[in-house]
Amino acid sequence: IFLFVGLFVIIVASVSFYLNKKGKKKIFLSENFIKSKIYLEDGEKNKAKNILREIIYANDATYSTLSLFLILDEELIVEKEVLLSLFNHVLENNRFENELKNLLIYKKALFQSNFANEAELLEVIKPLINRETIWKHHALLLIGDYFVSKNEYLKAKEFYIQVMSLKNLHNELYDQANSKLISITND
User: Fold this and answer.
1) Entry pTM
2) What percentage of the chain's residues is helix, strand, coil (to nearest 5)?
3) Residue 48: which of 61, 23, 62, 66 has the closest Cα?
4) pLDDT in tens, 51-71
């Protein structure tokens, strides 16, 4: 009985300690995130960037993602390789719900579409194209637009047609794919 009670007390204390520590970490990260935004408002971009990078490497799904997006929005880091490394770190070291992870993959592909070659971009976006996800039609449109920018209209047409063949597609997305398809056909 004493062993059982002692074990129970140790388990309760351990869980309590863990939850307390996790809560303090969240508070610390939120305070640092707010501090970085204040630094940005004051024009101290370097200090903000350093804090945001620390938050990313703290591996908290919420604040790591928010920090990455803030770095992108404020253009605090412009080196493509560093940004890709941060994207990869966030994706690999945090647990996300499927659709949130798919959003991150889409944002990474959107970022890479400015400089990546065809094979790299298709590799990044493949999980969205091959699964049923709410980001599939956006991914297909992105790839279609990528091929249009490279003047590869046949490949672009293929992806726009795929968008139009999706079920339960919002009318606006259907119209967008249709108008892009018409514009390539007329060129």
Assistant:
1) 0.81
2) 80, 0, 20
3) 66
4) 999 999 999 999 999 999 999
As given in the structure block, the two tokens for residue 68 are 């990455």
For residue 65 the two structure tokens come to 């993602």
Question: What is the C-alpha to C-alpha distance for residues 180 and 58, in angstroms, rounded to an integer?
Answer: 42
Tokens 């604040």 found at: 63
Query: What span, in angstroms and rounded, lies between the C-alpha atoms of 79 and 167?
Result: 39
Residues of the chain with pLDDT under 70: 187
Q: How many helices (H) and strands (E) does the chain have?
A: 9, 0
Q: How far apart are CA 135 and CA 102, in angstroms?
A: 7
Q: How far apart are the first and last CA of the chain?
A: 83
CB 55 within 8 A of CB 32: yes
Count Cα neighbours of 160 within 13 Å in the Cβ-side half-sphere: 22
The percentage of residues in the chain with a pLDDT greater than 70, rounded to a whole number, is: 99
Structure tokens at 84: 């890709």
Residue 84: HSE in the Cβ half-sphere, 13 Å Cα cutoff: 13
Q: Which two tokens stand for residue 142?
A: 């992105």
Q: Residue 69's pLDDT is what?
A: 95
Q: Is 68 left (phi over 0), alpha (psi -120 to 50) or beta?
A: alpha
Burial letters 13-23, b for 16+ CB under 10 A, else e = eeeeeeeeeee
